[in-house]
Amino acid sequence: MTSYNAPLRDMQFILKEMLEIQTYQDLPGFEEVTEDLIDAILEEGGKYARDVLHPLNKVGDAHGCVRNDDGSVTTPPGFKDAYDAMVESGFTAMAAKTEYGGQGLPHVLNVAYSEMSSAANMAFSMYPGLTHGAYSAIEAGGSDAQKNTYLPNLATGKWGGTMNLTEPQCGTDLGLIRTKAVPQADGTYKITGQKIWISAGEHDMADNIIHLVLARIEGAPEGIKGISLFIVPKYILDENGEPGARNSLECGGLEEKMGIHGNATCVMNYEDATGWLIGDENKGMRVMFVMMNAARLAVGVQGLAQAELAYQNAAEFARERLQSRSLTGPKAPDKPADPIIVHPDVRRMLMDSKAFIEGGRAFAYWTMLFNDLEHLSPDEKVREKASDYMGLMTPVVKSFLTDKGFKACSDCLQVHGGTGFTKDQGVEQFLRDAKIAMIYEGTNGIQALDLVGRKLSANAGRSIFGFFKEIDEWCEANSGDEELKPFVDALGGSKAKLQEGTTWLMQNGMSDFNNAGAASHDYLNVFGYTALTYMWAKMAKIALAKKGSDPFYDQKLVTGRYFIERLLPEAGSHLEKLKTGAKTMMSLDAEMF
Amino acid sequence: MTSYNAPLRDMQFILKEMLEIQTYQDLPGFEEVTEDLIDAILEEGGKYARDVLHPLNKVGDAHGCVRNDDGSVTTPPGFKDAYDAMVESGFTAMAAKTEYGGQGLPHVLNVAYSEMSSAANMAFSMYPGLTHGAYSAIEAGGSDAQKNTYLPNLATGKWGGTMNLTEPQCGTDLGLIRTKAVPQADGTYKITGQKIWISAGEHDMADNIIHLVLARIEGAPEGIKGISLFIVPKYILDENGEPGARNSLECGGLEEKMGIHGNATCVMNYEDATGWLIGDENKGMRVMFVMMNAARLAVGVQGLAQAELAYQNAAEFARERLQSRSLTGPKAPDKPADPIIVHPDVRRMLMDSKAFIEGGRAFAYWTMLFNDLEHLSPDEKVREKASDYMGLMTPVVKSFLTDKGFKACSDCLQVHGGTGFTKDQGVEQFLRDAKIAMIYEGTNGIQALDLVGRKLSANAGRSIFGFFKEIDEWCEANSGDEELKPFVDALGGSKAKLQEGTTWLMQNGMSDFNNAGAASHDYLNVFGYTALTYMWAKMAKIALAKKGSDPFYDQKLVTGRYFIERLLPEAGSHLEKLKTGAKTMMSLDAEMF
Predict the structure, then answer these.
(1) Contacts with A562 from chain B: Cβ below 8 Å
(2) Integer Cα distance of B468 and B456 in angstroms
(3) Any residues with CB less than 8 A from the CB of A142 and at least 6 apart, and which?
(4) In DSSP terms, which residues pair with A275 in a beta bridge?
(5) CB contact under 8 A, B176 and A558
(6) Does the beta carbon of B176 lie under 8 angstroms from any beta carbon of chain A?
(7) CA A288 to CA B436: how far, in whole Å?
(8) Cα distance from B109 to chain A (closest Cα, Å)?
(9) Rounded to a whole number, what is the distance in angstroms from the first to the last CA of chain A?
C-alpha cells in the first residue's frame, strides 16, 4: 500500500518565504493572496489529494478505462465521485478568470495544487489538466462569444476538454496533419479525420467534452502554415447553451499503455463533425503555442510530482524495513537488524531524490510566477522579463524535471529492493506513469531543440543574457557572506559552465545546425543544474537566516549542500559532452545501426 | 511488433578477433572450439532466439503464468514447446560437464547463447537460467552421489532447478533466515518454512524441479554462520532415479510484478518436506558464494541483452518513421518528411546505447573467459589472475550493465516517442523486464558494497593493482601508435581517475566505513567506465589494423570514438561525487526524510 501526503511545509517555504507571493497584493488576482489563504488552499488541496485521489491511484491502474460497444468510455470505479467532488470544491476553477466563473487566483498558487493532484493520481489529474488546456486555448484565441459560451463550464470542470493534435503519421511534425475541414454555408466546418492518443478523449465524468481539433481547411497551404484550430463539442449546444444533439465523432478505441491506465487515451474518429473555427484560418498553431508553455510547465510538474510520491514511499519503507547492520555498528541493537535508512547507498538514492525534488519544485514554482507577472504586472519591464523567462525556462522545466523525475522514481523503486518490483507494493506504477511525461507535450528531445534553436536566440539572446546578469548580480550581492559561500561559489561555477556552453553553441551551432542538435540535450542539462543551483542558493540564504529556529531550515541547508556535492558535478560532464559536437554522432550511415 | 536478430557479427568479433577463444585449444573444453564451431553455435542459437523465443516474448508478457487451484502453475501458451525444443537442441547443456551429459564447452561461448536467449525472451530464459544455478551449486558443493543423481537431468533441462534464498523478513540479509531443517534418522532433513520470490519455483515444463533451499538446522548458530543448503526435489526420486512420490512442498501463490510476467515468481511453502544436505552443516553460504559470481555475470548480461533488444527495435523505428526535416536540409526530399534517424538527438540516444552495448558485451565476455581460465588453465599464475579478475569484475559487470542497460531501454523507448509507450508496439516491455536485473541476485547497491568492501581489499589489493598494471602495460605497449592515441589517452586518463578513487577509498574508507558505503556506487561507475574504455581501446586496435577491409571496422572505430567523447566524461563527475564522502549524505535524522 502506498500513501501520499502533500509536502505542505516545503510548498509553504517556497511560496511564502522564497517567492513571497503574498507581497504581490497590488496585482490583480493577488489581492486576496494572504499567507492564510495560501495555507488554507494548500491544506484543503492536500486533504483531497491524500484522502480522495491517492486511494484511487492504484484502482485506476488496475482497472483502467473500458470502451463500451456504443463508443462510450467507463472510467475506473470511484473516478466519477472524485471528479464530482473536485468540481464541487472549485479547485479546477482556481486560476480561471472571475468573469468565466473562476476564482482568478494566480497560477503560482494553482501549480501547488496541480503538483498535489498529479502526485496523488496522475492519470486522474490529466482529465482536469486537459480541460485546462482547452480552456487556455479558447481564452487565448477564441472570440468573445466562444469564450462566453464555453469557458464557464470548462473552468469548473462541468465540461471536459481535449487537445487533438496527433495523427498516425504525425506527432512532432504537425505540418503533416491530414484531418480536413470543409467550410459550410452557416459559418461552421465539417471536420473529418482520425486523431490518436487523445488523452481524456471520451469518458463518463463530464456533461460534455469540448474537443479542440487541429485540421486543414480544404485548399489551405501545405505544412504548418495551413493548420487551423476548431472547437468540436461532443454534444452540440442547443439554444440555451446546454448540450444538445450528439456530434458526429466517436472514440474508436482505447490505447493499451505502459502506464496512466486510469486515463482514457483515445483514438478519435471525426466524420463530418461540426466544428467552429478558433481565430483566423490557417493560424491554428499560433493559438496552440500560446497555451503550450503553460501545458509544458504542467508536464514538468508531473515529473516532479511522481518523484515526490515515489520518494515519500521509499523514505517510509527505508525507515521501516530491517535488513543488515550499519557499517559503523548496530543502530537498532534491540531489533534483528537495522532499518535500511542507515545504509549509505540507500541514503544516496533518497538524498538524490530529495535534493532534486526540492530544487525542482522551487524552479517550477519560480517559473510559474513569471506566468502571472507576464500578464498582470503594470510594469512593462517586468512583463518583458517574465515573458522572456517563461519562454526560456519552459523547455528546461518540462524536460529536466521529467527526466530526473523518472530517474528518481527508478531510484526510489530500487530502495524497496524486490518489494518495489511487485504490483502489490505499488511503487512500480509511479515509474510507469512517470515515463509518459518525458514524451508527451513535445518529447524531451524536442524541448531541448526548442531551447537551443528558438529560445536562446529570441530577441538576440535577451533572455539568456538577462538570466546570466541576474545570477551575476545575485552572486555579487552575496559575495561577502561566509556561510553562503559554498552556494555562491557553486552558482558562479555552474553559471560559468552554462555560459561556456552558450558560447560554444553560438560559435558552432550556426555554422552547422547539427552541432546545435547534437549539443541540445547536454546543454539543457547544464541549464537545469544551473537553474536548480540558483534555486538552492536562494533557499540556502533564507535557511541560513533562520537556522536554529526550526529543524526544517537545518535540513534544508544539508539538502542544499548535498545537491552541490552530489548532483551538480554532472553539469561538468554534460558540458564536456556538448563540446564534442556532431561529427562522430552523425558519421554512421543509417544502415550501420 | 518487435523483432530480435542476434548481433552475430559483433559476437564473432569479440569471441574470435578480440578474445581469440579459438587459440585456447590446448585447454580442456576448448579442444573443439574452432572458428567454425563458434559460427555454427552462434548461428543456430540466433535462429532459435529469433524464431522461437522472441515471438513468445510478448505472449509471455500478456498471458503471464497462472497458478491453478491445485498449486500447479501453467506457463504462457507456447512456452512448453519452446522449452522442449531447447532441451532437444542441447543448448542448456553446452557448458555442463561431459561426465554429466553436457557438452563441456567453455562458458565464454555459452555466454553468447545466454545473451541471445535473454534478449529474445528474458522471462523464458530465466527457467534454464535458474536450472543452471542449481546445477552449479550441486556441482560446487554436492557429494559425488548427489552429482550423479541430479546433474545429468539438470544439465539437459529435463529437470528444472531453483534457488530458494529470500523469505519475507530477509532478502539481502540472509542471516535472518527462519526456514528450519530437522535432522531425521535416515540422514535426510525435514524442511519447513516459507520462501518468496522464487523464480521458476513451479511450472509445467520440466519433469521434476530440484529446489535448492537455504535453511537453519535446529540448534545451529545464529546469523549467517548457521545456514545450510538442501536439495529438496518436487518429486522425490525412486530407486531408479526417476521422479516418484510428491514431496511436501507447494507453490502458495504467484507474485504480480512490473515485468518478466512469463516467469513464475512463486511463494514456496515447505511443510516437513524431505531434503538432503549439500556439503557440511552450517556451511551453506560457502556453496552459494561459489555459484554466485557466475549467476551475477548472467544477470549483468540480461541488462545488456534487454538493451540490445531495445536498441535494435529503436534503430529500425528510427530508419522508418518519417517526421520533420533534417536540420541541415531534406535528406529524403521525395518523402513527406525525413526518417528520424537524421535528427541528432535521436542519434544521440541510439549511439549512447550502441556504444554502451558493444563495450559492455566485450567486458562481459572478456570477464567470462576468466571464468573458464580460472578452472582450466594449467598455469597457476593464470588461474590466480583469472580468479582475481572474476571476483573483481563480477559486481561491476552485474551492476554497471544492468544500470546502463535499463537506461538504454528507456532511451530506446524514447526514440519511439508516443508509440513507445503503447503496449501495441511492445518496446515498453523491455524497460519493465530490465528493471528487475538491477535488483535481484544482489541489488546493485549490494554489488557496489561488495566491490569496495570485499573485492578491492582481497589479497591486499592484488586484483585491482593487477588490473592497473595490465592497463599501464597496454598503454605503454601502444604508446607509439598515432591512430590509436585517442584511445590510449582516454584509457590512461580513466585509469588515473579509477586509481584516484581507489586511493581515496583506502585513505578514507577504513577510518569511516560510511565513506566506503557512500562512495561505492560512484566508485563502481568509475570502474565500469574504465573497464569499457579498456575494451574499446582493445577493439579499436583490432579495427584500426583491419579498417577499409569491411565497413564493420570503420563503424567500430566511430562507435569507439563516440564512447570516449560522449559516455566517458561521466567518469569525471562520478569521481568528483565519490570524493565528497559520507558526511552530508548521512547528516539527516531518519525522520527528516
Answers:
(1) 584-585
(2) 12
(3) A150, A151, A231, A278, A279
(4) A189
(5) no
(6) yes
(7) 41
(8) 25
(9) 43
C-alpha cell at A300: 514538468
A336 domain-assigned: no
pLDDT at A578: 98
Query: Which of A341, A421, A584 is facing B258, going by the closest CB pair?
Result: A421
Interface test with B, best of A353, A587, A591 (most B CBs within 10 A): A587
Q: Which of B308, B319, B455, B465 is nearest to B390 (CA)?
A: B455
Burial class (CB in 10 A: 0-12, 13-18, 19+), B219: exposed
- CA distances A555 to A9, A339, A484, A552, Å, are 12, 20, 15, 5
A579, part of any domain: yes
| Joined grid coordinates for residue A71 | 463508443
Question: Cα(A131)–Cα(A206) distance, rounded to whole angstroms?
Answer: 10
Which of B2, B317, B573, B589 is best to mutate for the A interface (most A CBs within 10 A)?
B573
* pLDDT tens digits, B374-421: 999 999 999 999 999 999 999 999 999 999 999 999 999 999 999 999
SS3 B511: coil
To the nearest whole angstrom, how far is the Cα of A238 from the nearest Cα of chain B? 37
For chain B, say whether A440 makes contact (Cβ under 8 Å).
Answer: yes
Q: Looking at the complex, does the CB of residue B288 fall below 8 Å from at least one CB of chain A?
A: no
Q: What is the pLDDT of residues A33-47, one digit of tens each?
A: 999 999 999 999 999
Q: Cα separation of A357 and A567, whole Å?
A: 12
Alpha-carbon distance values, A226 to A173, A213, A221, A273 (Å)? 13, 14, 5, 20
Give yes or no for residue B291 having a pLDDT over 80. Answer: no
Query: In this predicted structure, what is the pLDDT of residue B577?
Result: 98
Query: Is there a contact between A445 and B580 if contact means CB atoms under 8 Å apart?
Result: no
Q: At what angle do helices B344-376 and B551-562 cross, to 10 degrees?
A: 100
Structurally, chain B folds into a number of domains equal to 1
- Is residue B580 domain-resident? yes
User: How far is residue A286 from each of residues A297, A315, A456, B52, measured CA to CA in Å?
Assistant: 18, 44, 20, 51
> Which of B512, B565, B593 is nearest residue A584 as measured by Cβ atoms?
B565
Tell me the chain B residues in contact with residue A526 when contact means C-beta distances shorter than 8 Å: none
- The predicted-structure confidence for A458-509, as pLDDT tens digits, reads as follows 999 999 999 999 999 999 999 999 999 999 999 999 999 999 999 999 999 9
pLDDT in tens, A392-449: 999 999 999 999 999 999 999 999 999 999 999 999 999 999 999 999 999 999 999 9
Cα of A452 to nearest chain B Cα, Å: 12
Q: Which amino acid appears at position A216 of this protein?
A: R
CB B181 within 8 A of CB B190: yes
Residue B185 has pLDDT above 90, yes or no: yes
Least confident of A51-60, A465-474, B96-105: B96-105
Is residue A441 annotated as part of the catalytic site, yes or no?
A: yes
What's the helix, strand, coil split of chain A in %, to 5?
60, 10, 25
Catalogue the active-site residues of B. Answer: 441
Q: Exactly one of A115, A358, A374, A441 is catalytic; which is it? A: A441
Is A518 close to B345, i.e. CB distance below 8 A? yes
Q: Is A135 helix (H, G, I), strand (E, B) or coil?
A: helix
Judge: B521–A348 Cβ closer than 8 Å, yes or no: yes
Please give the grid coordinates belonging to residue A477.
550581492
Residue A291 binned pLDDT confidence (cut-offs 50, 70, 90): confident
Residue B336 in any domain: the answer is: no
Q: Which residues form the domain of B447?
A: 443-587
